[in-house]
Amino acid sequence: MKKIFTFAALVVASGLHAQITDPVATEVWNPIPRVVGFQGNSPIPGDAIILFNGTNLEQWVSDKDGGKAMWEVKDGIFTVKAGTGDIKTKQKFGSCQLHLEFRKPAVVEGNGQGRGNSGVFFQEKYEVQILDNYNNSTYPNGQCAAVYKQHIPLVNACKGPGEWQTYDIIFTAPVFNKDGVKVASGFFTVIHNGILVQNHVEIKGTTEYIGLPKNDAHGMGSIKLQDHGNPMSFRNVWVREL
């Protein structure tokens, strides 16, 4: 069997590490990271794609028929309009960094999965749960910030009803070869309200309410927000392609 050695292994094996006496010898000058900066005086990265500008849902369509997204837009936020269905981005994405802010109603209604339920899906298949779990218990792999029915969050970082909350999510898309076989898993890192709650966890497959995850081959897909019948509100939604 042909052996493959890393550069580091060859250096150690040959004793070359003992011969390096100049710090310049280990400086790497290329590639040079590009400058990103920020959009105006905002904290939004300069290369981010704005998915909601505070006035309309032009970047979104109905998941039912691809028509106009029917959720309500008012006072710089948009809110689930129960019964109109999920909405998804017109643009499709692979690996990406997503920022969004969400708010559950100040008036508490329901319990368990029936309180403040929504979700954000990547490539229309992989869900990070949104739920009101402030003094509200449910199965842990289905609570807020869970990779739904796959990974329990490290901690419960939920704020109370009526308070704005943040998600910063790093999504690494799974990879399939030309024969449709998954050759690399996807991963999620989730920061909820500034607290790490999912630390580069492996995505086992599609999000399923009943049954096990599936791993059918696919390409890029939309980011989707779920209409679960609860009036969840959103603002400041942007994404960076990775």
Content of β-strand: 25-35%
The CATH class: Mainly Beta
Helical content class: under 10%
By secondary-structure content and strand pairing, the structural class works out as mainly beta
Second-tier CATH architecture: Sandwich
Task: Report the total helices.
Answer: 1
Cα end-to-end separation: 36 Å
Radius of gyration: 21 Å
Order of helices and strands: HEEEEEEEEEEEEEEE
Mean pLDDT: 94
Largest sheet: 8 strands, antiparallel
Shape designation: globular
In words, what does this structure look like?
With 242 residues, the protein is mainly beta. The protein has a single domain, classed as Sandwich (Jelly Rolls), CATH 2.60.120. Helices cover 3% and strands 30% of the residues. It contains one helix and 15 strands; from the N terminus they run H-E-E-E-E-E-E-E-E-E-E-E-E-E-E-E. It has one helix at residues 7-14; strands spanning 49-50, 60-62, 72-74, 77-79, 87-89, 96-103, 118-122, 126-130, 164-172, 175-176, 182-184, 186-192, 195-203, 224-225, 233-241. Strands 1, 3, 4, 6, 9, 12, 13 and 15 form an eight-stranded antiparallel β-sheet that branches. Strands 2-5-14-7-8 form a five-stranded antiparallel β-sheet, with no helix packed on it. A hairpin with a 2-residue loop joins strand 12 and strand 13 (195-203). The relative contact order is 0.21. The mean pLDDT is 94.
